[in-house]
Amino acid sequence: MIRAALPLAFAGALSLAAALPAVAQQQPAPRILVTGEGEASLKPDLAMVSLSVMREAESARQAMDANNEAMAAVIAAMKEAGIADRDLQTAGIQIHPRYESRSYDDGRQTSEIVAYQVTNTLSVRVREIDRVGEVLDRAVTLGVNQGGGIAFGNDDPSAAITEARKAAVADALAKARTLAEAAGVALGPVVEINEQNSGPSPMPFKARAEAMGAAPVEAGENTYTVQVNMSFAIGGE
């Protein structure tokens, strides 16, 4: 029984081995691959402002106390200006020693701690763009001496992203039709589609800060970009 089974098993292995090259030689169906891009712009409706207070003293404790006092005044002023608690967030507190190099008559050189620096960074979300300059001016008056970075955004950019998606797909369809026509083939159905999108990039748009004495601020426009990669069959039904 065992001897009789061996030729059958060997014959089955040969049949499987003969079938493998046929599978390996199968080629994917021809397709048209294109990339489409679309974008849509929105005027910003909020701004993220980064404000930092740095204080220096002989000890870390003294530097921290001075920094706490200054930052507390800045936070109180932001709230008085109508900034909600949810729009105020501490972004980081750093404590660093400051060193100075000293040289001696015998040629020795040392590096000694001469002071400590404490930096507290506050992120402020400003929901009225025209008040950004006023917020910056008030913060500097109260002791902010570092930072000042501004990022303009949109509370709900979904409508702009949807428009960018539609434009990207239309762009990809137009490219695919042109390629199919040029190649003399029929454009089949969509086989695969995937999307990549990027956040807003600033574009020129006039804006002004209306408060007297406030820093001039240009809000710009936020442009949302979507890229789609689409695969079409050739000569589909």
Automatic annotation (TrEMBL):
Under the heading InterPro entries, the entry gives: 26kDa_periplasmic_antigen (IPR052022), SIMPL/DUF541 (IPR007497)
Q: Which GO terms describe its biological process?
A: DNA damage response
- Which first-to-last residue range defines the signal peptide? 1-24
Sorted alphabetically, which keywords does the UniProt record give?
Answer: Signal
Question: Where, by residue number, does the polypeptide cross the bilayer?
Answer: none
Q: Which organism is it from?
A: Nitratireductor mangrovi
Gene3D superfamilies tied to this protein? Protein of unknown function (DUF541), domain 1 (3.30.110.170), Protein of unknown function (DUF541), domain 2 (3.30.70.2970)
> Which Pfam families would you find in this protein's record?
SIMPL
This chain belongs to the protein called SIMPL domain-containing protein
